[in-house]
Every structure is written in C-alpha cells, then in structure tokens.
Amino acid sequence: MLRPRAWRALTLALVGAACDRPTAEDRSPGVVVRDSAGIEIVENYVPQWDPDDFWTLDPEPEFVIGGYDGLHGASNDSSHLVWRIWEVAPLSDGRLAMLSAGERQVFLFERSGAFTNAIGRPGRGPGEFFGPEHLQVLPGDTVVVWDAFFGRVSRFHPSGRLLQERSIDVGAVIAATRTAGRRPPETVHRPLPDGSFLVQVRRAD
Predict the structure, then answer these.
(1) Which of 7, 47, 93, 185 is the S-S candidate for 199 at Cβ 3.0 to 4.6 Å?
(2) Which residue has the higher pLDDT, 88 or 78?
(3) Residue 39 to residue 19: CA distance in whole angstroms
C-alpha cells in the first residue's frame, strides 16, 4: 500500500514524465511533428528530392577556358585570367563575360573558350575600376560594371568601348537609410536592370 506522500511523489513523477515526453504525430514517412510547451517542432528525415532528381555532371564540359596546343608546342592558355571571379554573365551570341576582382577587369570568352578581349582596367579614371563588385549584361549586350563603395557605374560596348558612366549620390543614399538604430549601407548590395539598386542596412549593434 502506498502512503499519501508516496502517491504525491508518483503523481509528480507521472506529470513530469508527461512534460518531458512531447506528443508526436506522423504526418508522412520520415516527418515527425511534435509539440513541446506549445511550440510545434518539425523533424524531417526525408530528402527534399527523390533519388532520381539529383543533379548530375556531364563528363564533357560545355565551356572550357584556356588550354594548351600540344601539337605546335605553344600555349594559348588564358585560364590564368580566371581568378577571384565575382560574377559571370552570358552575351546574346554565346560569349561569356567574367568579372575578375583580382585583375579588376571584365574578360570576354568565345563559346570555344578562346579569350576575346578585356574591358576596363585598374584605376580611378574613365573606364577604370577601383574595386569592381557587380556585373550585368543588359539587352543589346551592354556590359555594366558597378564599382564598390558606391563607386561609378560604367557601361561598355562588348568591344570594350566606354559608353556611359554615372555616379551614385552617396549622401542621398545615406540620408534615405539613416536611422538611430541602424548603420548606413557601405556599397551597392544588388543592382537591378533598370539602373536602380538595393542596399543592405544593419542594426547599429
């Protein structure tokens, strides 16, 4: 026979066990939904894709940059240009534009992988980049490069000829985003095709 004190202890133990063991509900195989103190917890053990839906890689690449002409013993390798690549964008004729933050230039490559020409160069003058951060190819194959820290926005013909440059009013950007609780943005976060752009603001703390 259990004494009253023992009954109370057993009752508390059962209540505690009920709190420690949240209820579980199987909604689908591999997915368990349970409730813990009013908070719904979902545990998913099933892959998002079926086994046949995973990506595969073709053993033959569609685009090869650089190479070596072993027959004539001459190097036509332009792959040394491909380092610290920030962004890549295709042109309408199949060429590929690559923004190299290391070289501070945009490189165009043919579909064959052969190097075509370079756009821009390091510097702070017209058509030059201090810290190129974003690359766009607009309709008509206009190549647009956005320099970092609200630098210039430069538009080029695919041949490399500078078409237009514009500056960003940094004071207006900071004034539009400044509040007491957040830091002003430092650079363009994401350019949009119409020339506008997004910035990233963070809390002051």
Answers:
(1) 185
(2) 88
(3) 13
pLDDT at 118 over 90: yes
Q: Report the relative pairing of strands 23-28 and 31-36 from DSSP bridges.
A: antiparallel
**Domain assignment of residue 152, given as a range:** 68-166
The CATH code of the domain that includes 131 is: 2.40.10
DSSP conformation letters of 75-115? E---GGG-SSEEEEEE-TTS-EEEEETTTTEEEEE-TTS-E
**Is the same domain home to 161 and 180?**
no
Give the separation between CA 61 and CA 68, rounded to whole angstroms.
16
b/e string for 186-204 if b means 16 or more Cβ within 10 A? Answer: ebbeebeeeeebebeeeee
Q: pLDDT tens digit string along 158-184?
A: 999 999 999 999 999 999 998 888 888
Comparing CA positions, the residue from 113, 116, 117 lying closest to residue 67 is 113
By DSSP bridging, strand 121-122 and strand 128-129 are: parallel
